[in-house]
Amino acid sequence: MTDITGRTALITGGASGIGLLMGEEMLGKGLGRLIVWDVSDENIAAAAERLGPRAEFHRIDVTDTAAVLESAGQIGETGPPVDILINNAGIVVGRPFAEHDHADIDRTMAVNTTALMHLTRALLPGMMARGAGHVVNIASAAGLISNPGMSVYCASKWAVVGWSDSLRLEMESGTSGVRVTTVLPYYIDTGMFDGVKSPVIPILKPAPVASRIVRAIERDRVFLRMPAIVNILPLVRGILPVRLFDIVVGRFFGIYESMTEFTGRRR
Known about the structure:
The chain is an alpha/beta fold. It is 45% helix and 14% strand.
């Protein structure tokens, strides 16, 4: 079990959405130090007003690997080291692949995938040396299913799921003491996926999602899939022929049409 009380947590993309809610909830459970990384000055200002001196904020673009490594290295110089890392930052372009430009591809993969690896690689040796730590990777149900209109996003999240669980196996193969939790939520109503349609599966509300992730950390869950129906996706995908799976998921559940009216977060 992971005890949050008195620990230090770092949350990327933590100044808004479920990142902010998770930080707030963990502080309520006695978290000793909350470090928030975010790329938005506007979000940082609003989150700082909401959380006050209980949290420390840093404007960091997680795709800037040099800045990430420098900032990660400075954490232990200003206070206790990171016990709980929540890789939460993510972006989505939300258009057909043929309409992506090359910058869209590079940035999506950098924010959603490689940034997680670089930051975790920077903090992991310290956790292993102390014999304790918890890495939480916010993937997506899109890491289990193909979906038109979000091909690169799906690719990035499929990669996260494979890397994250491989890391778990490595940490469990010895006596590292480091836990790894992979989170795979459906669409969450944070603004990131504004405009999506989901006629059968309800779009998730941010507060309950944040609470469930915090509980999953405390209980050392390996996977957290939300809602419950997401748990059967790997089984259904493995059993059904591809064309029948397309009919069930695409036509009946409407997943393949979910991005047709996507607008995303408007600024």
